[in-house]
Design brief:
This protein is of the alpha+beta class and 420 residues long. 55% of the residues lie in helices and 7% in strands. Strands 1-2-4-3 form a 4-stranded mixed β-sheet. α14 crosses α15. It is globular. The N and C termini lie far apart (50 Å).
């Protein structure tokens, strides 16, 4: 029995208010950057674009980090010449984001070359790589830093190698070498910064870090499936489209689908790679035990952005009651952002428990939360080092400073709690 179709109330798009329907329909259509029909069928649209509250629309786009692709499509369609919907402030802001993106791209190439000369295997992903793979240009996706992943054996090597080009790790300078090592090992990532240009590199050991929700440990196989792409004239190895799609689904869940860019990235990857092997994707998702997460993501982008999904894959996803329920939650969440209704109760914790299909994975997730919070209670961070400056020889005293700092910073909240 198809419980998803029989028991979950379907959302009626026609029930939207007039302006909300305009916003959502326009929003969904503009996001389809790879759709050649955008230019050809623009005049045939039935929506009155003149009634859109453009300042609110741009605010929404910027908060959801999809303003660059929307800006391009509006300019390409000549919509701005008809309605004057792009202000000078938006144009200036967009240009500054594109310039920053170009700076980061050339920095990424420089970093990869420096690491290669030291025989360090670093694979870039996210950010500029996603923009190139999905949208065909590194200037159409907002990103603020660089992300690289390395094999375990090379994980700590960039720290010393990148010192030669001005990178440092200020967050750990007051920790002892042993504390610093434990900190990096626990979190599965660390940050390198070049302060002069405000460039930040996140160095990863796992695709999703080592928090309570992680990619299954079988994913080292992706190292055998890397594919080259050309960005800024240089060929770089990165994740294959199949591995990237599964990663994007997991990453969206990890961050609770907080912004619409997650849906746009998944939809864009699917549309820009029409020859995806869907049977391979299905098999791999089952093998990694993330099939519900995969199905939920497909339902979200299909329902929200009309992303084309093969019928057999879509039917398989719709047969999972909890995947359909979770997808409807996310859809309503975005509806609330668009002003049609108040945001529903939306708990990232509850969403993850539902999306994790297998009992063992739920137990690992719950134990990960407990472990993470218990360890964070004893891991020294920048708040402790900023609270009082101690020399490295006395850094062990931060374990005593930490509870004192916590009480001082939260004394009012603790007092109110005691009163209750």
């Amino acid at each position: 029995m198809n419980y998803a179709q029989n028991t979950i109330p379907q959302i009626d798009k026609n029930s939207f208010g007039h302006i909300e329907a305009i916003k959502l329909s326009n929003y969904s259509f503009i996001l389809k950057s790879s759709n050649s029909d955008f230019m050809n069928n623009f005049d045939s649209l039935k929506y009155d674009f003149s009634q859109i509250d453009w300042p609110s629309f741009w605010d929404l786009a910027i908060r959801n980090k999809i303003n660059l692709i929307i800006y391009k499509n509006i300019i390409d369609s000549n919509l701005n010449t008809r309605l004057d919907c792009v202000s000078e402030a938006i144009s200036t802001y967009t240009l500054s984001q594109q310039k920053k993106g170009l700076l980061l791209i050339y920095e990424l190439i420089k970093v990869i070359n420096v690491l290669e000369k030291s025989y360090i295997n670093a694979i870039p992903y996210k950010g500029a790589i996603l923009s190139q793979i999905i949208y065909g240009s590194p200037g159409l996706r907002v990103f603020d830093d660089l992300d690289i992943i390395l094999p375990f054996i090379d994980y700590l090597k960039p720290k010393d190698t990148l010192l030669t080009i001005g990178y440092e790790s200020p967050c750990y300078e007051l920790l002892s070498p042993e504390q610093e090592q434990n900190f990096r090992d626990y979190f599965g990532e660390y940050v390198l910064v070049r302060s002069k240009e405000s460039i930040c590199i996140d160095v990863h050991r796992y695709l999703l870090g080592s928090g309570e929700l992680t990619f299954p440990r079988k994913t080292p196989n992706f190292w055998n499936r890397l594919e080259p792409i050309t960005i800024a004239g240089q060929e770089i190895l990165t994740l294959s489209p199949h591995d990237l799609l599964l990663y994007l689904c997991m990453n969206a869940l990890k961050d609770d689908w907080v912004i619409l860019r997650y849906a746009c990235d998944i939809s864009g990857l699917i549309q820009s790679h029409p020859n995806l092997n869907w049977q391979k994707l299905q098999d791999e998702s089952y093998n990694l035990k993330i099939d519900r997460i995969f199905h939920m993501s497909l339902l979200i982008v299909h329902q929200l952005l009309d992303t084309p999904i093969p019928n057999r894959v879509l039917q398989s996803a719709q047969q999972d009651y909890w995947a359909q329920l979770s997808a409807n939650w996310i859809y309503r969440k975005y509806r609330g952002q668009l002003g049609q209704s108040k945001p529903i109760f939306f708990s990232g914790f509850l969403l993850k428990l539902i999306a994790l299909k297998y009992g063992r994975d739920r137990l690992l997730y719950l134990s990960g939360i407990v472990t993470r919070f218990s360890k964070l209670a004893f891991v020294i961070n920048y708040r402790d080092t900023n609270f009082i400056k101690l020399p490295s020889s006395l850094s062990f005293l931060y374990y005593i400073v930490r509870p004192i700092r916590f009480v001082v910073e939260h004394k009012m909240n603790l007092f109110k709690l005691l009163l209750k």
